[in-house]
Amino acid sequence: MTPDNQSDPWVAVAVVLRPHGLDGTMRLKPLTGQDDDLLQVGIRQFRVRNKGRVMDEPLTLRDGTLRQGLLYVHFEGIHDRTAAEKFTNCDLVIPEDERWDLPAGEYYADDLVGLEVRDEAGKPIGKVLRADNGSAHDYLILSLEGVKAKETMLPLLPDFVPLMNIADGFVEVRIPEGLLD
Q: Which of 79, 134, 144, 145 is most buried (CB neighbours < 10 A)?
């Protein structure tokens, strides 16, 4: 946990995508570990975070299945597409103290917020603002020193982010030529 996000007692474990079908099935993109961790760890109570605000009403997982890297789930009380649509693009979160251990080299997306960004020579060049999901891969959203843009998007791939050292509070990045022009 980094100092910038210590006060947030919630950890994002999935992003809610658009609903699937008409019966309230919700599609989730997992943000941690293996794609089916959410179904395997036994946690059934979740909250929804929308634009930084955690909703008071919990969602209780009824059942789910994994298909092609996405979770298709049903929550109690969500019985149609209209009810499911209000959660689109929200984070599914759990309390910090309920997060499960991840294998070495895996991390929670929330753990990246506030990490120092270093270039390949180890020089600090900015901070991680957040991690965003994309259809092909995820992205780090960075605030870089000396760059006019408030946010710089960098693919979260080994070619661009060769080292993530959460324990020591930094990520090493390779900025592709022309990205900051």
A: 144
Q: Which amino acid is at 88?
A: T
Cα dist. 96→31, 39, 109, 141, 171 in Å?
A: 15, 18, 13, 22, 22
Residues in the chain: 181
Note the pTM of the prediction, 2 decimals. 0.70
Q: Are strands 124-132 and 139-144 parallel, antiparallel or unpaired?
A: antiparallel
DSSP letter (8 states) at residue 109: G
pLDDT digits (tens, 9 = 90+) for 136-167: 778 899 999 888 878 899 998 899 999 999 88
Which residue matches tokens 């089916």? 36
CA pair distance 148, 169, nearest whole angstrom: 24
CA distance 114 to 28: 25
